Structures are given as C-alpha cells and as structure tokens.
Amino acid sequence: MGGKVFSSGEDRLYTPRMPKDVYRAARTYAIACLNGLFVCVSGPLDGPGKTTWGDIDLFVLWPKVDFISDGDAAWQMKKAMSAVRFQHRSTDLKTCSYAIHWPDLGSDAEEQCGDFDPNRERFCQVDVTLCTDIHDFGWKLFLASHGDIWGILGSIIRPFGLTATDKGLYLRIPEIENKDRKRSMIFLSRDPVEVLNFLGLDATAEYWHQPFGSAEDLFEYVTRCRMFHVADLVPSPFDDDEDEVKAANSKERRRLCLRPVYRQWIEDFRPSCLNKSEFLRPRTTRERIKREAFDQFRVGQEFFMRRLAFMNEDIERFLWNKVIKESVPKPTTSNQHIRFHYHLQLQAIKSVALHNDASYSVRFVSDTEHRRWSDVERVREFVVQHRETIGREACIRHYQNMEKKAEKAKLDAALEVCRRNERPA
C-alpha cells in the first residue's frame, strides 16, 4: 500500500516515502528485531531504479517462541520493533503493518532525505507476513522480488491460461474462468525454479540473488519468457469495441499511475519492440501450454474432471431455469394451496429429470452418464408429457408424510403420558 496504512483517519501518522539510506537503516533494524522471534526473516529483492520506498516488506517463518495465536505473534512483533502502532492487513491475521520510528541518520543524511515536513514526527511502515512453511516462505519472497516483474509477467502469461497468486502458479480452465474464476484454477507449482523453467526463464543466481541493474535489464530478461510477444500492439481493423477496451484497461490505468517501471514497460519498451520488428509473433499457444502443463505437472485428470463436473452443473442449471420452470405453467392465482402444489410439482420434476429419482411411476433415462446439451429437448418433452403425473404423486406423498408425522406426534405424546404415570410419586 506504499506507506499509506497509517496516513489516514483521525489519529494519522506521518509516513513519507523513504530515501535509500533511511530505507536500508529501517529495514536492517526491523530484521534485527524480528531475528529474535523467528528463525527465518527476509525481504524481497528490490526493483530496479528505485530511489524511494513507501514501505518495507518482510517475511518471517518458524517462531523461536511459542505464540498463543497469530494475533499474539503480531503483538510480540510490535513490542520487538518498538512500533507505535500496528494494523492487520488480512482477515487471517497473517499480514500486519507496523509503524516504527524514523531512523536517526544525523544531520548530513537528513539533508538528503528529500521532500518532507521537518516539523512533523516521521515514521516508517513495515509490512510483515507470517508464512506457513518453507515453501510458502520461498514462494512469497520470489513473488515480491524485483518490484514490478510479476506485474509484467502476469500480463504476459494471462492470455495463455496461467495465473500466479500468492499461493502458486495456476492453470485456468477456459470454460469456467469467466463464470467462476476461483474454481477454474488448477494448481501447478509454487517452486520458483520449476515455475521459471516452465515459463522459459533463467533461474540462476545471476538474476535471482541480486537486483537488476536497471529497468532495461529487467525488461530484457522478461522477453525471454516464451509467451512474450507484441502481436497485440499490431493495429487490427476488428479492434473497434471502445467500451470493451475501456473496461479492460481500467485496472491497467491505475497500475500505470502507481508503477513507474510498469509504465515504462507498457509505454516505452513494448512499442520499441514493435518498432524494431521484434517478438511480433506468439511463440506458443494456450493449447500447447495446457498440454505441456499436463505433462510436467500431471494435472490433466483434475483439469478434465473439474471441467466435466462444471459443464454438467452448467447444463443442469440451464435445464432447471430455462426448461423445467418454463415448461410447467405458473399459477396465476394467489391461492396459497395452489401455489404450494406448484412448488411441490417443480421440485419433484427436478428430482426425477435431473437427479434420476426412481421412486416415481415415471423415470427420465439419459443416454449418457453426464449431461449433454442434446438432453435439452428430451427433458422438455419429458416434462410436458409427465408434469401432471409427477405433480399429483408429489402432492399425495406430501400429505401422506404429513399424516405420518401427525400420527407419530400423537404416539410420542401418548408414550410421554405413560412414562409420567409410571414415575413414582
């Protein structure tokens, strides 16, 4: 959040952007404090060309002391860093922001601290994330390193059906992603080396043990991703849907305003590739990436089973809402009994036609185990032909069940009277 957590509200704190010397001093101090509480304390590699920082990101793992809860851990970290305030950043209490005192670097260093109000007390924002295991620790560090690199890589791999989150790299199911994005994602890996190799990027220490020297160096590295191309920048006579373009670019505009390196990538580097006629054609396809993910991560069965289950549910939703409901006349009267019978009829037809309920006198038999769009007309014909029969049987069942419950209630009441009479006075 760029140092903005404590800068609003009634009791706000002054957290200006930190120049390099202040950032390094505050970061070193925070790591030293947290080393007393955790075995592993580390921060991501900085992005190229940064001269000021809004906050300090740190990740911690394996407590050296027994915390009662994540909330207790947050409180102990506040005490260790002598923070004046802390605030949870996530509902699971895994990430907290802390306001620590601005380091005293002396008068000479203060003159280089940039534009700030010297009459206000300054603080530094430190964001600390509790990691669950060594894999989570490594992945989150990897994802946060090099500043905007994953914002750039994310925009490159997204059209090829891949998504990187704080949990790992995922493959999306095309038929599901626009309806239920979370359910569409198949987990592939959270091993940084494995992920980089799959993307076609170098995982050696040259690139991942130190920051890039410049934004241009980072851009050159990213172009090695086998999914990178600038074909989308080539003018097309079919790109005339202005509303669609505006909707797609709303988040992009915000990122361009807040991320100078990302803006440089979008506005300068990619057009320069087009001008030099480089990376004009895609080097792979979404289908090929999917097949390679199946081979490398062994997720083919999960992919197809989840897609089949969702498509089956999708067809059933259509059959229920657009076929069954529209094939049973809705009562126009306000009579509650008639309307109640109508709902009994609908639920019974749904049970027979969609859930293979064999307890009624008529049955719907599908040609296959799974739903297909070819079932639509067959279901419609079945409902029209048998709706009266199924509705009548559903009503009879309902009243028979009511009678059984009433008889049981009478019997239970009689038994309770007997038990009371048998008790000694």
UniProtKB/TrEMBL annotation:
<protein>
    <submittedName>
        <fullName>Uncharacterized protein</fullName>
    </submittedName>
</protein>
